[in-house]
Amino acid sequence: MKYLKMNNGMMIPVIGTGTNTFGKENNDFGGKITYDTKELRSAIELDYRLIDTAIFYRNEAVIGKAVKESAVDRSEFFITTKIPSEKEFKETDEHVAHYVEKSLEELDMDYIDLYLIHFPLETNEENLRVWRVLETFVDKGRIKSIGVSNFNEDQLGYLIKHARIKPVLNQFQSYPGKHNQPLIDFCKANDVIPEAYQSLAKMDDKTKDKLIDIAKSYNKTWSQIVLNYQVNEGMVVIPKSHNHQHQSENIDIFDFTLSEKDIATIKNMDNL
Ligand SMILES: NC(=O)c1ccc[n+]([C@@H]2O[C@H](COP(=O)([O-])OP(=O)(O)OC[C@H]3O[C@@H](n4cnc5c(N)ncnc54)[C@H](OP(=O)(O)O)[C@@H]3O)[C@@H](O)[C@H]2O)c1
């Protein structure tokens, strides 16, 4: 596994697993929680150590259970969760603190590696208020790193300017066809790691066909091309799969180098 160093000195694996439908009936996002850990056990077996969950996914307890069931030491995992932006979670500082404590309880862990604000709140000042509560958990050692998700340049820039602890990472949607390149560039210029979500799910057929073409010359799959491209661009990726073969494929991306020409082609897919 490769790692990136975050701006607080800590290391983050460049590939993790998404989980938003794990441990749920019919693998349905809104499905009943089954506490079935098979998808995560399969990912952990394949050496996935970064696990991306959120309060909104309702499956923090499933992640905690899978980590405990594995023979891998807690210290080897990198657990990310997120606080939602809805009123009940952030109305007062006490609400925010309560839900962070609840994440720790659900995960049944002494600490969380990375805690994100899932979506920006109504104003930059509100983001900063919630952020300050998260900072107190970093001070206490209950959260190791804090970051954001779905923040644009203005929202992220405000936090960077005014926060005591700088965000380590911004998680947002990015895939060939919609890289969100200006935001990637802004993150990198400010030493904030860009983390891609939905690297694979949202691709249109035309783009996928072009990627399949590129993949042939490397003897790889289109998903491996996408993930290799993103990691090579300095992003962290969190593909999710319920399929052991796909999980295995998605983490097997370190044994080839895309040509400059193919990198340029993939970068320009936003304009297809
Ligand atoms: N911060 C946010 O607001 C936000 C929003 C959305 C998602 N997320 C996070 O990002 C994670 C990833 O996003 P996502 O789950 O929506 O989408 P994704 O990881 O881009 O794609 C998942 C889909 O791709 C398929 N897939 C995975 N690997 C494949 C492969 N090698 N070949 C072919 N198909 C493959 C999966 O099907 P199979 O199961 O059949 O393989 C699944 O249908 C989420 O689980 C969640 O943790 C965050």
Describe the protein in words.
- With 272 residues, the chain is an alpha/beta fold.
- It has one domain (3-203, 229-244): TIM Barrel.
- It is 41% helix and 16% strand.
- It contains eleven helices and ten strands.
- It has an eight-stranded parallel beta sheet with strand order 3-4-5-6-7-8-9-10. A two-stranded antiparallel ribbon has the order 1-2.
- β7, α6 (153-162) and β8 form a beta-alpha-beta unit.
- The model has no long low-confidence stretch (mean pLDDT 97).
- The structure holds NADP nicotinamide-adenine-dinucleotide phosphate (NAP).
In N-to-C order, the SSE pattern is: EEEHEHEHHEHEHEHEHHEHH
Q: What share of the residues does DSSP label as strand, in percent?
A: 15-25%
Described by strand count, sense and barrel closure, the largest sheet is: 8 strands, parallel
Number of beta strands = 10
**Tally of helical segments:** 11
CATH first level: Alpha Beta
CATH topology title: TIM Barrel
Q: Could you tell me the mean pLDDT? A: 97
The shape, in one word, is globular
- Order of strands, main sheet, comes to 3-4-5-6-7-8-9-10
